[in-house]
Amino acid sequence: MPLQRRLPKRGFNNIFKKVYAIVNVQELERFAADTRVDKQALIAAGLVSKNDNLVKVLGDGELKHAITVAVDKVSGSARQKIEAAGGKIEE
Fold it and tell me: Could you tell me which of 9, 54, 47 has the C-alpha nearest to residue 27?
């Protein structure tokens, strides 16, 4: 029996999988009004790691002031909350 038939088969590993670091809208409240929040600002605040390649903002929480968010992806509810507070989104 050949070796490749003797070894157990184990799942599928997608080499093209994208893993996002998650940041909620309530965590963006700590930034001052009218600032630009990008990956470097999130790393400095300790919200994401240097090793995280992609950042996604989710809509959990509220935002009371306008900020500019420059990340890889933004959920629909987060987009509504940021724009309702007077902010902008740059993807």
Answer: 47
